[in-house]
Amino acid sequence: MKTSKMKTSKYEQGAIAFADENYQKAMEIMLPLAKEGDIKAQLSVASMYFSGLGVKQDYEKAAQWYRYGAEKGHPIAQHSLAMALFSLENIEEAIEYLLKADQQNISFAQSCLGDVFTGAYNIPNHILSKFNFGFYDGLVWYEKAGDGGFSYAYHRLGDIYAKGEVVTKNEINALKFYRKAAQEGYSPSQEVLADAYRNGLFGLPVDLEQAQYWSKKIQENENA
Asked: Confidence band (pLDDT; 50, 70, 90) for 192?
């Protein structure tokens, strides 16, 4: 009895080449598929142009290929297009696509919107004023992103409450969000907790056992 073999699709061949870091071959395979309208191939081609893998880095071409999927409502394409547009300093349109990706619960886009409206990106006010959102909307987006598994957003909330950025300084809230991020394996938050237990910060008692616990978690992340 002959054993039938599954035929590898062109896209799969391109994906294998990409995984093997043979980016030039991946581009040679993916580009014709992208031109035929394959959204996955378009995203792959766009990402290679965005990062300069197998081709010269070109944000314009990356945006061009991301746009095909973004205009069809593909959420990954939408937030990726936003990143390309930020690189091209087309800030207003970038925010518009982040808002579209937010509607599809893309945590990375929600975190970026938090950065935009809390001032982490230092976007000029004349651009931000075109949108009906402000600092506190940014906090909501951060929490949505954190709830969706993007732990940086929790850490950023911890920083905002710890430092009293616009909001009233609140160490209880700061500790709550640092702990959430740390429990999800985010090393910067684990470092904060280790230091807090070591030195009795955020109203915590000195607890060297807990300090050692979080220090060990950091080491585990580094060795993973």
From this structure: very high
